[in-house]
Amino acid sequence: MSDKIQRLVGRMRSGLKDVSPSKIRAFDQEVSEIPGIIKLTLGEPDFDTPEHIKEAAIRSIRANHSHYPQSAGTPGLRQAAANFLDKKYQLHYTADNVVVTVGATEAISVAIGAVVNQGDKVIIPTPIWPMYIPIAQMQGADPVFIDTSADDYVLTPKRLEETIQQYGDQVKAVVLNFPSNPTGITYRREDTKAIAAVLKKYDVFVISDEIYSELTYGDSHVSVAEYLPEQTILINGVSKSHAMTGWRIGIICAPEPIVQQIFKLHQFSVTTATYVAQDAAQEAFENGFDDGQVMRAEYEKRGRFVYEQMKAMGFGVSQPQGAFYLFCELPAWLDEDEDSFCHHLAYDYQVAVAAGTPFGPGGENHIRISYASSMAQLREAMKRLKAYMATKQPE
Questions:
Q1: Looking at the structure, do residues 366 and 259 belong to the same domain, yes or no?
Q2: Where in this chain does the record put each Aminotransferase class I/classII large domain (predicted)?
Q3: In the chain, which end has fewer C-beta atoms inside a 10 angstrom radius, N or C?
């Protein structure tokens, strides 16, 4: 690196030097070159986008929808998303409450960016999808972690209230994610209601990422926005519910005055999501009302299989309640840390899983398994994992 470049890098935004690229994606990319690898690392549905959605995209192309759509999203998609959320989760949104984003990731970024100032506190229950943490840091906020591992990975009202009172008016937002990545745990109605009762007492934003809402096992998903419509910035989309990760369509819903402020950050960041993808997402919301149910049934079967296998091998693991992840604690007798475990399992036995530490406090000594793979691959992966564990058994 030349002296000039080194000096220029030194003048860049100071907070960026404290932010590392995603370790999970870096490891996934690294192990992708291993011959015969079975990757259980990323939250990538193995289902294809339903045919009727793909046909809608083709019609969109033929209709020459290759120009700029409205920055907030096409009126048709915004209304379709509002209708979907109303019918599914009793959330009374209109198109004016919706902004279409480039995936849920952009939704998280602009939601946090629109509400925090330098030094504000953002409460983040962990373990959690790591993306929230650097986004909050890059926006100048200070993450405040609540380790939920001792409470079955559910944020308790007591701990939430204690944390808000500890930091007072410095707390600007609370992040929720359920069903959860990485734990596969969700908040039942009584949990959601109890958390909402605490949050209602304070002027804090609730940034609730419910992208896995259609993949809830047992009871139907209950959105925190049902109880806190004035405070909630709801994030959802079609990536997981309709196997559309690569289409990059997310949505933000909130009261109109709040959405108008978020929209500014969205507009001046990306202008708009692509027209064809928006037309496809509109079809998903309008005519794919139950597309996620077939996938959910298959994920539930796969999750139960992997859960039973991991439990039998001695891992500490909770029964999955939603999404398509298991968060597994390494057995106490295993004389190996999580990074070494993941490395040797990938290179010696061709199975890749994600290490738990990047998911925040409570993730140490854990691994995350994504079971969004075929049952055949999962059976083979568990067979290989058993073989690896057999080499580690104490004598």
A1: no
A2: 37-385
A3: C
